[in-house]
Design a protein that fits this description.
With about 350 residues, this protein is α+β, with helices and mostly antiparallel strands. It folds into three domains: about 70 residues, no CATH class; about 170 residues, Jelly Rolls, CATH 2.60.120; about 70 residues, Phage tail protein beta-alpha-beta fold (3-Layer(bab) Sandwich). About 20% of the residues lie in helices and about 30% in strands. The protein contains seven helices and 20 strands. The strands form three sheets. The chain has a 15-stranded mixed β-sheet that branches. Strands 17-20-19 form a three-stranded mixed β-sheet, with helices on one face. Strand 8 and strand 9 form a beta hairpin. It is flat and about 65 Å long. About 25% of the residues are buried.
Length: about 350
């Protein structure tokens, strides 16, 4: 059995490809504990990629390690990848609370350039992240954010793919900008939700508290400034390239996912299936496409995916069966008429 190695040795083992899964998990946990640890690893990786030969042997003695560290050049670009994934069983419906650290991109430590950290919520999970400024972010299943952690930056920037809920720490001297491929959201301190899944045709921003300003981007120009108030929502149709501003929406319908509760109000069954695939990290195949045009109203809390489909069977004329991690749905040939929830 291999003797437990030091962090120094684990870094070299990771770069050399001589590391076990348990050791890698230990190393990633250490790197995610602080930016200082992450930067230290990045420096070592930078030197490794500069073709330093036979470094794996250096970690075994203090003298060789110190000699190795003295050769580090901190001015070169480097890329650090940290991945921590929460695995969910098919029947699990729980929220993952914790930091899921992704790739940290460091271009130059001594220059005032953006330093980005990526947080990912894999399919089947929800993650919670607290930014260095104290901003709280929930990430929905299948989502990703990239944010600038350089304290010298004049503004706080976050790039969203998927869905994220923000509780932004107020800082009037340093505005908070959320970027989507179509428009940007500027805020000083507030609570709001941004939904921007690549596979969906709408980008939706919902404001709970405070106020936000919608800014033009390189791909979309607004004729006039758009400022949202609490209870308002901005919807951009990617296909028809149309903007719709909605007033007095029930924001809870669009943010309940962060509390592990999903509320559907007259939702197309096809959209519900996409949501279930992300939430439970499964594949759903629909044999009869006409089912997708039906509507569904309901709430999912802690039900398993099989429990969800048992409920749907009582409101929709469907049958289903499971093949490994795939659920196959077909239209029920004979049965009772759908309830009032299905129109």
């Amino acid at each position: 059995m291999r003797e437990k190695r030091s962090i120094k040795s684990l870094i070299i083992a990771e770069l050399d490809g001589d590391i076990t899964n348990a050791e890698r998990a230990r190393l990633l946990q250490w790197m995610s504990q602080s930016d200082r640890n992450a930067r230290y690893y990045t420096k070592i990786k930078d030197l490794w990629e500069s073709s330093v030969a036979d470094v794996a042997e250096m970690a075994q003695t203090t003298q060789e390690w110190e000699r190795f560290k003295n050769r580090i050049n901190t001015t070169r670009p480097a890329v650090l990848t940290i991945r921590r994934r929460i695995n969910w069983s098919l029947t699990a419906a729980v929220v993952a609370i914790g930091l899921l650290v992704g790739s940290l991109i460091m271009q130059n430590y001594k220059q005032k350039v953006p330093v980005y950290l990526t947080t990912i919520a894999p399919k089947g999970s929800v993650s919670q992240t607290i930014l260095p400024d104290g901003t709280l972010i929930y990430l929905n299943a299948g989502s990703e954010i990239k944010y600038d952690v350089n304290e010298t930056s004049k503004k706080r920037e976050v790039f969203v793919t998927g869905e994220a809920w923000f509780d932004v720490k107020r800082n009037e001297k340093k505005p908070f900008i959320v970027h989507t491929p179509y428009y940007n959201v500027e805020v000083l301190g507030t609570q709001f939700n941004v939904k921007n899944y690549e596979a969906e045709h709408r980008v939706v921003t919902t404001l709970e508290k405070g106020s936000i300003r919608i800014l033009s981007s390189d791909h979309l120009m607004f004729k006039e400034e758009i400022v949202l108030k609490p209870g308002e929502q901005l919807v951009f149709d990617k296909i028809h390239r149309k903007i719709q501003r909605k007033e007095h929406v029930d924001t809870h319908l669009y943010t309940s996912w962060k509390d592990n509760k999903l509320i559907f109000l007259d939702m197309l069954f096809g959209d519900l299936i996409k949501l279930l695939e992300r939430k439970y990290d499964i594949e759903i195949e629909v044999v009869d496409q006409s089912i997708l045009n039906e509507h569904y109203t309901g709430t999912i809390r802690n039900e398993t995916i099989l429990e969800v489909f048992e409920i749907i069977k009582h409101t929709h004329p469907i049958e289903y069966h499971v093949e490994e991690r795939k659920i196959i749905i077909q239209k029920k040939v004979k049965g009772e008429s759908p309830s009032q929830n299905c129109r």
